[in-house]
Give the backbone structure.
Amino acid sequence: MTIGFLQSLLRHPGTRSSLHKSFVANRFLSISLPYDSQESNSVAPVSEIVNELSRVLSDYRNPHHDIESALVPFVSKISTDVVEQVLKRCSNLGFSAHRFFLWAQGIPGFRHSEESYRIVVDILGRSGQFAFLWDFLMELKKSGSCEVKRDIFWVVFRVYSRANMPGDAVRAFNKMTDFGIPPCLDDLDQLLFSLCKRKHVKDAQEFFDRVKGTELCPNMKTYSILIRGWGDIGESARAQELFDEMLEKGVIVDLLALNSLMNALCRGGKVDEAYKLFRGLRNMGFEPDAYSYSIFVHSYCDANDLHSAFRVLDSMGRYKLIPNVFTYNRIIKTLCRNQKIDEAYKLLLEMINNGSKPDTWSYNTILATHCDHNEVNRALKLMSKMELDGCHPDRHTYNMVLKMLIRIGRFDKVEEIWNTMEDHGFYPPVSTYAVMVHGLCRKRSKLELACKFFETMIDEGIPPYTSTCELLRNKLIGSGFAEQVDILADKMGRSTSKSIQEASNVMKYSSRAPRISSRNEDEYPSQSDD
């Protein structure tokens, strides 16, 4: 296949079908059709409507885009289920997702579910649009379209904590009264948990110290949250102080509090003290649960002491306690780190036999080792096993395997996997396209194929990473095909996606071009990633 044919392909999109039959699945041609061009005598499935709406939200993501006009053809297709799915799918598109929500709200006879309101609050927080978030809550209060309940504020606590704005999370707690919600102990626990989960333990402790003398009387759960929080950042001494304070105040201690203290001691490197406490549990009238044991499994895995970790597993077996998937995954990771792959597979089988269903992380951990060692057959066999076990591959699964196959030149398998993705319910996102383009650009004679995947990504309305545009542009220019850069840039400029139109400047090497990236962009340029 010559670069001249690629030039013809890009100039005349109608000739793409022959290429798509051989490598890129034909599904792209049908998905790119406008929704109202589908057969009118059939009802589109919800998944198809969600895909189409998600595409619109992606195409019209900037404030100046006329998203409302683009959504008009979907009025008759809107339902609460569709709206929820679109909002979840487009949680990274804060502005357009919010506008979509408001547009749907204006459809006569339509009413959002309470879950949709919570999702929007989360989306606005995730995208850092906190002013819009509070305007949204104030409008709910004013209009009464949805009662602002405690659980919505719990979402607010989480988004502020995630954004490393602990002070604002505390202020949100204090604002609850403005919405007619007097804060209760459950609200305090939710706030402290959200803060501690994001390592804002000092802020959580300071607020706890301010309110513990008020009508909010902390209980065992409240203390346990903070004890675990201090333990998670390695401050076992502070955790012990809180535990002692709890005893002094006469707060009833249960297994949850003791587990939190043991976890804190182990995280602080005081495993012997934690084990001494563990051995005394039964004398105190407490029967250790699976979590009590898992604390030591994780601690021994951190120390790369597999013998001790398995000894704890054996003890759990004697008491008929089954580890959860997170505990199993921790051991699998340690086994793989020590190149004990056969033992990892045995543990995977044990999980299944014990009824602790492996998750994608369980398989991906082993798969990563196979991919690192270019073990094609074992990697593909494991992917098949995932499917048989009812665990669907995710983007990390596909990205790892595709990188390996491109790296060693197994393009027959690349084609096979790519063309069956849709059958497995996986639609390649920008990261997977980046894996293909970056990997193929580094292979001799595969530059044209890299261009084809880049073109398909543009046809799908998926804005490419800036690094992907830069790499492909530089490779084309360096190989003497500067004209192809202009052709691609022109194609991007004619895209229905405003973001892709703006990214065309990157392809033209404009210093004024916006940088299009994601939190995971750095994950993909290198073939040794994942």
